């Protein structure tokens, strides 16, 4: 198919998107980066469509070519375009965050190293919900590996240039599996039950409302689902839905990141929330993703 350009809000750097993707351990193996481009399969109905994405030559954004087994209708192409834009955070408005961070001396070096970084996230609500259900009482490595095995088993695939690309299955596809079948991917019955509860619960909510509804109302709805606690709710909101209004700043990884940026003692979670307001999630993303990109920076634990 012909190449199209998906615009991004400025500032935007596709090179930094690739760098962030390369370090995004929960989604390792779900995309292929080569020659300054990335290929990834997206779900379209029950089919896989492969997006081949590179930098746009003359404006902020990405150049996108789609590969499919058949001719795609304009509405179908538009649906994949939206999925790609959400995955790479192309439409994210970072202006409020950059305004505050630009007046925060401790963030100066990090902002220079990460100029144009947009948040890369899970490619679908289903992928994020499955991962955060699997990572509870487990490790990032095991959860990512189990997620890959589940995708390989149930997700449709498409081979492009001799490489098979697997699209992550939908919430409905995963929810259709019984608990006994999910044990093979979850590792034990308790985690399989939690996986099923989380997937069924998230599937019962309207995704568009999750992305655009009042933040506290959406957060409350997620917390009301079986198997979803504060960490999972925050993770879904920020790392899956791209909503920066909140972040679990009391967790050790964010405390360590704040200490690396500000020194000891770092600002308290309350002080950071007061400073960054509804863009606190972008602060959390930048200090966790780009901290090690600074010259002579002390890497923050994953």
Automatic annotation (TrEMBL):
<comment type="similarity">
    <text>Belongs to the type-1 OGG1 family.</text>
</comment>
<dbReference type="InterPro" id="IPR052054">
    <property type="entry name" value="Oxidative_DNA_repair_enzyme"/>
</dbReference>
<protein>
    <recommendedName>
        <fullName>DNA-(apurinic or apyrimidinic site) lyase</fullName>
        <ecNumber>4.2.99.18</ecNumber>
    </recommendedName>
</protein>
<feature type="domain" description="HhH-GPD">
    <location>
        <begin position="134"/>
        <end position="285"/>
    </location>
</feature>
<dbReference type="InterPro" id="IPR011257">
    <property type="entry name" value="DNA_glycosylase"/>
</dbReference>
<dbReference type="InterPro" id="IPR003265">
    <property type="entry name" value="HhH-GPD_domain"/>
</dbReference>
<dbReference type="InterPro" id="IPR037046">
    <property type="entry name" value="AlkA_N_sf"/>
</dbReference>
């Amino acid at each position: 198919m012909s190449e199209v350009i998906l615009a991004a809000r400025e500032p935007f750097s596709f090179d930094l998107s690739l760098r962030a993707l390369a370090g995004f351990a929960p989604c390792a193996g779900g995309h292929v980066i080569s020659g300054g481009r990335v290929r990834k399969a997206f779900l379209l109905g029950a089919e896989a469509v492969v997006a081949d994405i590179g930098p746009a030559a003359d404006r902020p954004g990405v150049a996108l070519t789609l590969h499919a087994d058949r001719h795609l209708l304009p509405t179908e192409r538009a649906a994949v375009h939206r999925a790609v834009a959400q995955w790479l955070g192309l439409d994210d408005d970072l202006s409020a965050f950059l305004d505050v961070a630009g007046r925060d001396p401790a963030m100066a070096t990090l902002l220079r190293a990460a100029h144009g970084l947009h948040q890369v996230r899970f490619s679908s609500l289903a992928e994020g919900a499955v991962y955060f259900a699997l990572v509870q009482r487990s490790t990032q490595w095991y959860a990512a590996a189990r997620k890959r095995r589940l995708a390989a088993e149930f997700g449709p695939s498409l081979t492009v240039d001799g490489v098979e690309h697997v699209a992550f299955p939908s919430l409905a596809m995963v929810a259709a599996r019984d608990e006994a079948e999910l044990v093979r991917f979850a590792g034990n019955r308790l985690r399989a039950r939690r996986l099923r509860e989380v997937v069924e619960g998230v599937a019962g909510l309207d995704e568009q409302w999750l992305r655009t509804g009042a933040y506290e109302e959406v957060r409350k709805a997620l917390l009301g689902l079986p198997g979803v606690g504060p960490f999972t709710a925050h993770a879904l909101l920020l790392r899956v839905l791209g909503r920066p209004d909140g972040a679990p700043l009391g967790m050790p990884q964010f405390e360590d990141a704040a200490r690396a940026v500000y020194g000891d003692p770092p600002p308290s979670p309350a002080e950071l929330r007061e400073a960054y307001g509804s863009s606190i999630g972008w602060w959390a993303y930048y200090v966790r993703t780009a901290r090690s990109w600074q010259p002579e920076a002390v890497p923050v634990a994953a």
